[in-house]
Design a protein that fits this description.
By secondary structure, the protein is α/β, with parallel strands linked by helices. The protein has three domains: 376 residues, Rossmann fold (3-Layer(aba) Sandwich); 223 residues, 3-Layer(aba) Sandwich (Rossmann fold), CATH 3.40.50; 95 residues, no CATH class. 39% of the residues lie in helices and 18% in strands. The strands form six sheets. A ten-stranded mixed sheet has the order 4-14-13-12-6-11-10-7-8-17, with helices on both faces. The chain has an eight-stranded mixed sheet with strand order 22-21-23-24-20-25-26-27, with helices on both faces. A three-stranded mixed sheet has the order 2-1-9, with no helix packed on it. It is elongated, with a radius of gyration of 34 Å. The protein starts with 5 loop residues before the first helix and ends with a helix.
Length: 732
């Protein structure tokens, strides 16, 4: 059997379509009058980007159309004009107005590249074939034909490849201009979020069409022939693997989203092609029934019967494929010879030897460049990590932004690349540490390297914080180094200047925090409320006697009699003179309580000039919270109100511990990693399957019920060796 090279199939067999366009002859498979003959088109963004502009119009279709026509010239909303005049290259000869043509190859009965259209009749398709049957060859052939027939503004391709090899070539060999996103990963959350984004786009399209009084995408394209809203095609290779990798909750969410696409895709121009060795344990039979197009390579008889509707594919020869979209009998099978994107032929591209695959993709990409057309493609590679220097560059660039937002937040952190799909140009996870109740950080993972990494990541953020520019003082750090396994990897105390840190290594030293907290709890409300030295002195005295008289209520009346004298003593001078006058009072009076108030007045004066010089923002690092047997109740009160008094707790653990539930209540930001599902369950965080050495970390923000995930930056820990007796030196 002669092999059919793709180059011969595409460039020779499709020449008739190019002639049909130039000669204006009728061809059912193509649009011979694209864009109503105009050389200038308007690229329409996803309605998701502009739908909110129609909110006040309601169901008024006339006003909706008027507004749409007004905003369709606004590039700041996402619309873009594109001039497509130029030399006829022999490709991009069709539009997706009526559907998407799948060119499987040369049909045996007609000897023509007869397409099967994904459109109103066949909305979605399934591809099945056993290992070695040529499924990858078929997939590449379909994609090559799609990106050759349709311009990238006509088709948005979303690719997901759980083998992490085949479909990633469309981003590694060359960035294919049709591809919006390619997930070469077994990271189920990325694929799930990619599908979720497509569902959001589809729902926005449906809403937009209803507001416009339009039934489906073809009607929209007919009504506005020079405005291009592309069709969306999601191709998932090894589809069954997606369900094997997913947790039960994730599997249910995938089914829910795919069911929505199956039902609404026809009208909105959203299509799916799933490829796998088989489809068992994936979607329900009723959902799979909506995949009208069935394609089979060689496979066992039971799979052929399930997918194709008959057993004919069990005898399908190599290099051929069977398709059925009618009654699924053998009589209605269509047989195609599949072109091969040959990799043994040498081509010359700009003076360099390349294989056909690279040559073709580079040619397509260069043509898009000539038109000035670019998407914002996303390529997710599961194992790829950026170096930690990439984080340093980001922190440097956002310094001014952080500085401008430090007053309303404790700080703003940069964490790492998303593990979920985002249409943003820069998909980098950030975190605003807000001020309020229970705004602390909890880090827990059975992997000590995860904990050490997060400690390093947080330190890198805090050490580059614009806090000194904003408040005149750097962070102060109180460090409890209680976890030897983490300390071997990363010793925070070695990086902080001695004047900015206090180090503890005994769990019992946790009690040292109580007096620090009580001092701020006592004075900060006074400092913020008082306006004059006398007002502060009276408030200070009253708060003291309240504490004293809580034990002896009978003393309250007697103590209150001293207030007029205090008012007299601390009146008659302004805040500018308060520091000097307070010093005079301390030297001239013998009453201890008055001396104490005078000393506090000096702190009040300094606080009025620069609060951070009296009570600097302080980070309490407790590395090894799991070794503290009993957490005092006052610690929990302190953590609850921490950021109100410019404290932030960072609590770290490498194991579950008895106090985890109570500690969790006081932490709004919870970081975790590893594959211990019990920890995730106790933290009330959704668990997703991953390897023990995964480079992905998870974040839960309780107050907003958000779950985020991000990749670690590449960072090399230099493990500190355990102490050993130098026997070689001593014994020799």
């Amino acid at each position: 059997m002669a092999i059919l090279p793709h180059s011969k199939f595409f460039f020779n067999m499709f020449s008739k379509y190019v002639r049909a366009i130039s000669e204006k002859t009728n061809q059912e498979e193509i649009d011979t009058n694209p864009y109503n003959g105009s050389d200038e088109i308007i690229l329409c963004p996803e309605p998701l980007q502009f739908l909110k502009l129609f909110g006040s119009i309601g169901a008024n279709k006339t006003k909706t159309k008027e507004l749409f026509e007004q905003i369709s010239v606004c590039e700041d909303i996402g619309f873009k004009k594109l001039n497509i005049s130029g030399e006829n290259t022999g490709i991009w000869f069709n539009t997706t107005k009526r559907g998407i043509n799948l060119r499987l190859g040369i049909e045996e009965s007609t000897k023509e590249p007869t397409p099967i259209a994904l459109g109103d009749r066949c909305v979605h398709g399934l591809i099945a074939g056993q290992t070695g049957s040529g499924k990858s060859v078929l997939m590449h052939n379909i994609i090559f034909n799609l990106i050759g027939e349709y311009a990238p503004w006509e088709l948005d391709l979303y690719l997901a490849d759980f083998k992490r090899v085949e479909l990633s070539k469309y981003m590694t060999s060359c960035t294919t201009p049709h591809v919006c996103a390619c997930a070469a990963t077994s990271e189920i959350r990325y694929v799930l979020s990619q599908i979720n984004y497509i569902v959001d786009c589809m729902n926005a399209r449906e809403d937009f069409f209803k507001r416009m009084g339009i039934e489906k995408i073809k009607t929209f394209r007919d009504f506005y022939p020079n405005i291009v809203l592309p069709r969306i095609l999601l191709i998932v290779d090894e589809f069954q693997q997606m369900f094997l990798e997913a947790s039960p909750k994730e599997s249910e969410l995938i089914r829910k989203m795919l069911t929505a696409i199956v039902k609404k895709g026809r009208a909105t121009g959203v299509h799916i092609i799933f490829a796998s060795q088989e489809m068992s344990h994936t979607l329900s039979a009723s959902d799979l029934a909506n995949f009208r197009l069935r394609i089979c390579l060689n496979c066992n008889p039971s799979v052929s019967l399930d997918i194709l509707g008959n057993k004919k594919a069990a005898n399908c020869p190599s290099g051929y494929v069977l398709a059925n979209f009618d009654d699924y009998s053998e009589r209605t099978n269509h047989c195609y010879q599949v072109p091969i994107c040959e990799d043994n032929e040498v081509y010359y591209y700009k003076g360099k030897k390349v294989d056909y695959f690279s040559y073709y993709l580079q040619y397509i990409s260069e043509l898009a460049d000539k038109y000035g057309f670019h998407k914002n493609p996303k390529f997710y590679q599961e194992d790829f990590q950026e170096d930690i220097t990439a984080l340093d560059a980001i922190l440097n660039k956002i310094y001014l932004y952080r500085s401008n937002n430090m007053v309303s937040n404790f700080d703003i952190l940069t964490l790492g690349r998303y593990v979920t799909y985002s249409s943003k140009k820069y998909d980098i996870q950030t975190l605003f540490i807000e001020k309020g109740l229970n705004k602390n950080i909890l880090v827990i993972s059975p992997n000590a390297e995860d904990v050490a990494y997060l400690q390093m990541l947080l330190w890198r953020n805090f050490s580059t914080s614009p806090i000194k520019d904003a408040f005149g003082e750097n962070y102060k750090h109180i460090i409890f180094a209680l976890s030897p396994s983490v300390e071997k990897l990363f010793r925070l105390e070695e990086l902080i200047p001695s004047e900015n840190k206090t180090l503890f290594t005994n769990p019992d030293d946790i009690n040292q925090l109580e007096m620090m907290y009580k001092k701020r709890e006592f004075f900060i409300p006074l400092f913020k409320f008082a306006k004059t030295p006398a007002e502060f002195a009276v408030l200070n005295y009253r708060k003291n006697i309240e504490i004293e008289c809580a034990r002896r209520p009978d003393l309250l009346k007697e103590r209150e009699q001293n207030i007029p004298e205090i008012e007299r003593l601390f009146s008659g001078f302004s805040m500018e003179d308060a520091f000097i006058e307070a010093n005079r009072i301390m030297l001239t009076v013998d009453v201890p309580i008055l001396k104490k108030i005078a000393r506090n007045l000096q702190d009040f004066y300094v606080y009025s000039k620069n609060p951070a010089s009296v009570f600097p923002r302080t980070i309490v690092w407790i590395n090894g919270i799991d070794v503290i047997e009993r957490i005092p109740s006052w610690i929990q009160i302190m953590m609850k109100n921490a950021t109100e008094y410019d404290f932030l707790f960072v609590l770290m653990a490498t194991s579950e511990f008895d106090n985890l539930s109570s500690v969790r209540k006081n932490c709004d930001y919870i970081f975790t990693g590893g594959n211990n599902r019990r920890i995730y369950d106790r933290l009330d965080i959704n668990y997703t399957y991953k390897d023990a050495g995964s480079i992905v970390l998870d974040l839960n923000i309780k107050s907003s019920s958000e779950e985020r995930s991000f990749k670690k930056y590449l960072y090399d820990f230099q493990m500190k060796p355990s102490n050993q007796i130098p026997l070689d030196e001593i014994l020799d």
